[in-house]
Amino acid sequence: MAMKDKNALVRAKGLQLLAGLHPREVVQACARVLEEGAVVEKQRAISVLADSREPSADEVLRGWMERLLAGKTPAEIRLDLVEASRRRKNPALAALLARYESTRSPGDPTARWRDVLAGGDAEAGRAIFRDKAEVNCVKCH
């Protein structure tokens, strides 16, 4: 029911809940969301795939990493794809990730940070900035 809600945040949470209830079905649901969903849903779908124990999750992520290499992914999900590919520990994803990383300009010291310029969650960032003792941002800022 949550995945049919009008609010994208509710749909994203529904996808996360589906992962706990029906791990096999959620991979295909994530694939659909990646094609049609709002950015927040796509980000959650990638996170769900990264945490999935289903081998088919690797195939979905592989397809999206190939799109990333072809320049055919929204900027808002690039970081999510890179991080998910790292977390999966899959050789094919690792190879695609290495290819992607090799496209970065070697002379640009900021190149590895380009993917963080789009996407994200302002509320989550604000909470980390203010409340996470481990990073203690407020101490200096």
Structure report:
- With 141 residues, this protein is mainly alpha-helical.
- The chain is 65% helix and 0% strand.
- The protein has 8 helices and no strands.
- The chain has helices at residues 8-21, 23-36, 39-51, 56-69, 78-88, 91-102, 122-131, 137-140.
Number of helices: 8
SSE string, helix = H, strand = E? HHHHHHHH
What value does the average pLDDT take?
92
Biggest pleated-sheet summary: none
Which class best fits the helix and strand makeup? mainly alpha
Radius of gyration: 16 Å
Features:
mainly alpha; 141 residues
Write a compact overview of the structure shown.
This protein is mainly α and about 140 residues long. The chain is about 65% helix and about 0% strand.
Please outline the helices and strands:
Elements: H1 8-21, H2 23-36, H3 39-51, H4 56-69, H5 78-88, H6 91-102, H7 122-131, H8 137-140
Helix pairs in contact: 1-2, 1-3, 2-3, 3-5, 4-5, 4-6
